[in-house]
Design brief:
It is a single chain. The chain has about 80 residues and is mainly alpha-helical. The protein contains four helices and two strands; from the N terminus they run ααβαβα. Helix 1 crosses helix 4. The relative contact order is 0.22. Bound molecules: S-adenosylmethionine.
Length: about 80
Amino acid sequence: MPDEDGYFGEQVAARYDESSADMFEPAVVEPAVDFLAELARDGRALELGIGTGRIALPLAARGVPVQGIELSKARVARLRA
Ligand SMILES: C[S@@+](CC[C@H](N)C(=O)[O-])C[C@H]1O[C@@H](n2cnc3c(N)ncnc32)[C@H](O)[C@@H]1O
């Protein structure tokens, strides 16, 4: 149900990483980041629904400039944190 945040408000954002902990495991994240870094080469990446930055942050740490679109202000706040 949409709230003042539009969708996926703070309560959902606060639990998302925790409730999806298996998706944040290095064994899941690292192969995806390896694949995307290889795909991007010297280019950039745009993630639609960037969430809390599960993939975008480690991809950026690999030197790929990443931009994202995200509906949830609460999730973007967590990404920035
Ligand atoms: C399943 S989560 C995945 C988040 C992130 N990509 C990841 O892999 O951890 C999907 C994300 O897409 C966002 N989203 C859904 N519909 C959207 C839309 N129309 N525009 C922007 N973001 C959207 C949600 O708020 C949510 O954060």
